[in-house]
Amino acid sequence: MKAYVFPGQGAQFPGMGKDLFDSSPVARGLFATADRIMGFRITELMFSGTDEDLKQTRVTQPAIFLHSVILATLLGSSFRPEMVAGHSLGEFSALVANQTLSFGDGLLLVSKRAQAMQKACEITPSTMAAIIGLDDLIVEDVCASINAVVVPANYNSPGQTVISGSVEGIDLAIEALKAKGAKRAIKLAVGGAFHSPLMEPARLELEEAIRSTSFRKPVCPVYQNVTSLPATDPEEIKANLAAQLVSPVRWTRSILNMIADGATSFTEVGPGAVLQGLIRKIDKEIVTETAVL
């Protein structure tokens, strides 16, 4: 079975999507629709903006979503997903790809999510850090032992975990994890503590937007970040999508479950190739590739 995966925040780069725009009138139409929906010319920021422009959460998330979804659309009849998954933000791209969400509804939700997350980031000084070379259980135990907000946020691959929380919590956790033998423990250049309890105000906003959005029964299962399990029921998908903001991304377990359920190859749809690298660390034998037109 062929699985498709969709990247999240961090995959952006200046000029992203310009090749799609130049190559296809369908892409140009979708980008024009996106400019109207967003209320500003996000295409200009994607095609001509700087690294700093693209790091703004309100721009980053819809830009990555647009690149992924428009690329999937342009694949045409060769795009026949039998299972999909997306890393954090990428779950929204996956839900458009498997026809749970329309293009417009997906973009509106991503925009609402980005704005809500940005507001939540401004309430409490917070950040995230990558922890390399420690078992997940050690990371979990250290986070639980610290008297400040800090939790595992992304289980990316064996030995690669991202933690999330208050600046104080992250600083304390980094020192404790280094003492436990972490090969690397470094802060990330992000706006706040994604996938942590500090995102609760954003979850409430997103949940309200999700509740008023039409979700259809998908053409194939989506393996959701919160559970790492396949979902096809629209109400279950909605609940998990809202919970994702305050829950860890269980990427390693999602990929292992997809393989156990018959995935023989993974195609990454969107900017970059980060997910392929993570998947190869999870299973060295599995076939991975980049979606190309």
Short description:
With 293 residues, the chain is α/β, with parallel strands linked by helices. The chain is 49% helix and 16% strand.
How many structurally independent domains? 2
For this structure, the quaternary state is: single chain
One letter per element, helices H and strands E, the order comes to EHHHHHEHHEHEEHEHEEHHEHE
Strand content: 15-25%
Give structural notes.
With 293 residues, the protein is of the alpha/beta class. Strands 2-1-9-10 form a four-stranded parallel β-sheet, sandwiched between helices. A four-stranded antiparallel β-sheet has the order 4-5-3-6. The longest helix is centred in the middle third of the chain and has 21 residues, at 103-123. Strand 7 (222-223) and strand 8 (230-231) form a beta hairpin. It has helices at 18-23, 25-38, 42-48, 51-55, 57-74, 90-97, 103-123, 136-145, 167-179, 200-211, 234-243, 251-260, 274-282; strands at 2-6, 83-86, 126-132, 150-157, 160-166, 184-187, 222-223, 230-231, 265-268, 287-290. Helix 2 (25-38) runs antiparallel to helix 5, helix 5 runs antiparallel to helix 7 (103-123) and helix 10 (200-211) packs antiparallel against helix 11 (234-243). The chain contains 13 helices and ten strands. It folds into two domains: 2-122 and 197-290, 3-Layer(aba) Sandwich (Malonyl-Coenzyme A Acyl Carrier Protein, domain 2), CATH 3.40.366.10; 125-187, Malonyl-CoA ACP transacylase, ACP-binding (Alpha-Beta Plaits).
